[in-house]
Design brief:
Oligomer: homodimer
CATH superfamily of the largest domain in chain A: Aldehyde Dehydrogenase, Chain A, domain 1
Largest interface: A-B, 61 and 61 residues
CATH class of the largest domain in chain A: Alpha Beta
Strand content of chain A: 15-25%
CATH architecture of the largest domain in chain A: 3-Layer(aba) Sandwich
CATH topology of the largest domain in chain A: Aldehyde Dehydrogenase, Chain A, domain 1
Order of helices and strands of chain A: HHHHHEEEHEHEHEHEHEHEHEEHEHEEEE
Number of domains of chain A: 2
Shape of chain A: globular
Chain lengths: ~425, ~425
């Protein structure tokens, strides 16, 4: 299906994908919780049952990737094995076991005229997910959209198209087994850029939101060009601020974890800010611990005086998401200086304060405008699973609709149900 | 300021308006509830104190309007008098007395590792409001945005620019009296279409959402061209369905109110659907009551047989928001037929069911996908004030972020505050 494909074909094909998604969205929106649960369990079963076929398809992608000279990191993202397939199946089962959000009463109140008003969750409609080489996104994203009652259009990268197609076949099997429309979760069968372009234009009103899952250039393109809402974060330039009121041992352990637990995730800390009042005593032990863990220190001039082993930081360091074992370090004038630095350089994803002074914490919580703020805890907790949301499809830094981890609830909208007994408006 | 103005000037001017709004947004976002309340009360006081200046400015707009040949309806929208100025001041006081939404904890929960997570309301940022001839929108919309901690950019029509400017001067006085930045609520000082165009492009990232307040052509332009999110409804093609289980007297009074209380508002019913099982007995008394109230009946063929005085409906009638004393009427096959008709023709704004059968009501509530659904109550309750939200800035039919009446809460976003005691992620 990937051969002899032309751009005009893609436009027509994507329009058809959009129409099919929209017409699947309605039966899906009113499907019972039990039916959606059954479909998800059937998908998980199908993944395990079809393990051999998935691994064969993956072997084809791996061979193509080898030939195309993919990097070892990309090859690792692409690779499937029985453990990873089992993890995918378990992920879908965990989503199946989440509370069904559709129909949940979010708020309710009575009016003096006797009207009873409820705000209840509804699906959003059609969700588009654009991803790169990880084939497991097909399963995760499809399952999350389904749980929230949304139709999904999944567009994977060309590197993983055989693996994604094999996984998608299992998803389709699960939908069919539960009597749900197979078009509820579609995998775009072509991988040219034109398909993405059509999604960014909104498929003629048949796409309600786009979620990009991948590197910076993908997210940037989607944010710049999409004519429909986007849930995304361009980068996680996360800060951790150590206040003079902090406990030093806690500061050491939390900073090291925030930076070094995993350096490649969006919640990893990139900049350490230390209160000038304790810089002399706090900085050496914290930076020694980071260095001992293998971290490169890029320091402002005043930090360098206290810790001469560091690399001098330049202006661009405060704006860089390293996603690596590197941290930029500055001394700031207390909570005011910390807030000012963060509001100047942050990507508004996640920031942490280590402090015992409740006033400093309250100011940090009130005045820093990021999706996630943490007190005395590692920035690496910025994750839907860690928040107790079950699975997440990503983290959003926009302020519209979804902010922070995007889980099942964030993939819903709401409507009002008003019950009366004959009220007319005076 | 309206003379000798060129398009290049407008681009530069609007960019500056955007920058000023963004820099006012931060102090506003962290302003205390008391300070915002004081500013609103001071605005209301200033409106009353400056009544003469406002009426003089309005007289100028009215004279210009007369000369330009504005319709009587437009002249009425434009006109101010002491009563209307008092109503504006009272409207602002009512907004002042609403609960301050910023900092409100919307949800909170504990994690097994001891982290305590709160989701708290924050302002959205910068809100743009594009309106036409009603000068009071300057006060209403500015006050609502301020209450939610948002900076506002208000762009009024040229017909009302003198009145709007005089009202805006009172708003600026109130902001200044309370020590808030005057740029927190700006009135765009030019009225050319290019100013709107710049807002639709998003003012270089300095505009977070646009709310159009006005007629269909304005809303359509904003929805089609805006590169930032829009809270709006294009039309309110509202349906009222009378089920066979309805009480006839209730059906008569609610249908007449839904259609005829005010015909020009978005929540007015435009189409009546009656269950075939009771059409013979229900339709004549309902349609007689509508006709007695001065309503023109446009009827499907089977309705015409029962009520020959009606005008035959054509296909376009089911798609028309009359905003007038006209109703289209069809017979449907029970709740299934009603849902099918509504999902085919509705603008997804507001629909009502008159029924005593709980099963029919539940199906209507679950399967109709409109912002507001009512049971045994008039569609004319589709209003933020009637919902108990205080004031509203409009009604949204989109599914993203805000749906239904857009009040102070809908003008907010949220962030997460996570409290720990040294937790690191394993």
């Amino acid at each position: 299906m990937l051969n002899k494909h032309e751009a005009g074909d893609t436009v027509a094909l994507m329009a058809e994908v959009g129409r099919k998604a929209r017409s699947a969205a309605r039966p899906l929106a009113i499907a019972s919780a039990e039916r959606k649960h059954a479909a998800l369990i059937a998908m998980a079963d199908a993944l395990l049952r079809n393990q051999d076929a998935i691994l064969q398809a993956n072997a084809l992608d791996m061979a193509n990737g080898e030939e195309a000279g993919l990097s070892p990191a990309m090859m690792d993202r692409l690779k499937l094995n029985p453990d990873r397939i089992r993890a995918m199946a378990n992920g879908i089962r965990a989503i199946a076991d989440l509370r069904d959000p559709v129909g949940e009463v979010i708020a309710e109140w009575d009016r003096p005229n006797g009207l009873h008003i409820e705000r209840v969750r509804t699906p959003l409609g059609v969700v588009g997910v654009i991803f790169e080489s990880r084939p497991n996104v097909t399963a995760d994203a499809g399952a999350l959209c389904l749980k929230a009652g949304n139709a999904a259009i999944l567009r994977g990268g060309s590197d993983s198209i055989n693996s994604s197609s094999a996984i998608h076949a299992c998803i389709a099997e699960g939908l069919k087994a539960a009597g749900l429309p197979e078009d509820a979760i579609q995998l775009v069968p072509v991988t040219d850029r034109a398909a993405v372009g059509e999604m960014l234009k909104g498929l003629g009103g048949n796409l309600d939101v786009i979620i990009p899952r991948g590197g910076r250039s993908l997210v940037e393109r989607v944010q710049n060009e999409a004519r429909v809402p986007v849930f995304a974060h361009l980068e996680g330039l996360c800060h951790i601020y150590v206040d003079k009121s902090a406990k030093l041992d806690m500061a050491v352990s939390v900073v090291v974890n925030a930076k070094m637990r995993r350096t490649g995730i969006c919640g990893a800390a990139e900049t350490l800010l230390v209160d000038r009042a304790v810089a002399g005593t706090f900085l050496p032990p914290i930076l020694n611990a980071l260095a001992a863990a293998g971290c490169e220190i890029r320091a402002s001039a005043d930090v360098l005086k206290l810790y001469p082993d560091a690399v001098p930081a330049v202006e661009s360091d405060w704006r860089t998401e390293y996603l690596d074992s590197i941290i930029s370090v500055a001394i700031v004038d207390g909570i005011d200086g910390a807030i000012q630095h963060i509001e100047t350089y942050s990507s508004h994803h996640t920031e942490a304060i280590i402090a015992e002074d409740a006033k400093a914490v309250e100011r940090f919580f009130n005045e820093v405008d990021s999706a996630i703020l943490l007190h005395n805890a590692s920035t690496q907790f910025a994750d839907g699973g860690e928040f107790g949301m079950g699975a997440e499809i990503g983290i959003a830094t926009g302020r519209m609709h979804a902010r922070g981890p995007v889980g099942v609830e964030q993939l819903t909208s709401f409507k009002y149900r008003v019950r009366g007994n004959g009220q007319v408006r005076p």
